[in-house]
C-alpha cells in the first residue's frame, strides 16, 4: 500500500486466522480468559487477530491518504464452524451445511466519502467460492 500510494492498485487480502488449526499465541489467548470453553476461546482469539489485521490495513490506507479513494469489501466464505465454538443463530446449520447458517455471511462495503456510513442495504449480494475437490493434476483420475 505504501509503495503504490500514488498509483492505482488492487489487493486481495484473504485471512485464514479464524480457520483451523486454531493456534493463537498465549498472549492473545489470555485476552479471552472470561471464556470458559478452550475451543471457543481459541476461536475468539483468532478472530481478534483478524480484526486487528483489518484495523492495521485500514489505518495504513488512512496514513497514506488512500482511504477516500479505496473501495473495501469485507465478507466471509461460509458460516461459522461447529456449534462448540460459534453461533449462527438465528439460522440453522454450520460451515459446510446447505442451511442458512452455512451459507449466509456478513458483507460490508466501505468507501469513505463515496458510500454513506451506517446504512443497511437489503439487496442480495452473491459471492462465489469455487471449490474444485480434484484440481487438475491432483488426486486419482
Notable traits:
141 residues, mainly alpha, two-stranded antiparallel ribbon, 3 helices
What does this protein structure show overall?
- The protein is mainly α and 141 residues long.
- The protein has a domain at 26-110.
- Helix content is 25%, strand content 6%.
- It has helices at 26-30, 38-63, 100-103, and strands at residues 72-75, 107-110.
- A two-stranded antiparallel ribbon has the order 1-2.
- The model has no long low-confidence stretch (mean pLDDT 85).
Question: What is the fold's blueprint, element by element?
Answer:
Blueprint: H1 26-30, H2 38-63, E1 72-75, H3 100-103, E2 107-110
Antiparallel strand pairs: 1-2
Major sheet strand order: 1-2
What is the helical fraction, as a range of percent? Answer: 10-25%
Q: Which structural class fits the helix and strand makeup? A: mainly alpha
For the biggest sheet, the summary is: 2 strands, antiparallel
Counting H and I runs of at least 4 residues, what is the number of helices? 3
Rg, Å, rounded: 18 Å
* N-to-C span: 42 Å
Oligomer: single chain
Share in β-strands: 5-15%
Note poorly predicted spans: none
Question: Mean pLDDT, nearest integer?
Answer: 85
SSE sequence, one letter per element: HHEHE
- Principal-axis shape equals globular
Number of strands: 2
Short description:
With 141 residues, the protein is mainly alpha-helical. It is 25% helix and 6% strand.
Amino acid at each position: 500500500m505504501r509503495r503504490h500510494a500514488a498509483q492505482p492498485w488492487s489487493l486481495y487480502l484473504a485471512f485464514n486466522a479464524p480457520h483451523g488449526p486454531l493456534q493463537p499465541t498465549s498472549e492473545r489467548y489470555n485476552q479471552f480468559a472470561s471464556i470458559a470453553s478452550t475451543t471457543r476461546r481459541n476461536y475468539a482469539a483468532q478472530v481478534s487477530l483478524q480484526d486487528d489485521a483489518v484495523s492495521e490495513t485500514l489505518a495504513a490506507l488512512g496514513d497514506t491518504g488512500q482511504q477516500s479513494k479505496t473501495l473495501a469489501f469485507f465478507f466471509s466464505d461460509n458460516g461459522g464452524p461447529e456449534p462448540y465454538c460459534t453461533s449462527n443463530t438465528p439460522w440453522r446449520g454450520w460451515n459446510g451445511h446447505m442451511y442458512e447458517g452455512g451459507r449466509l455471511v456478513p458483507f460490508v462495503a466501505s468507501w469513505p466519502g463515496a458510500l454513506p456510513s451506517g446504512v443497511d442495504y437489503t439487496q442480495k449480494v452473491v459471492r462465489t467460492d469455487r471449490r474444485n475437490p480434484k484440481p487438475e493434476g491432483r488426486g486419482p483420475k
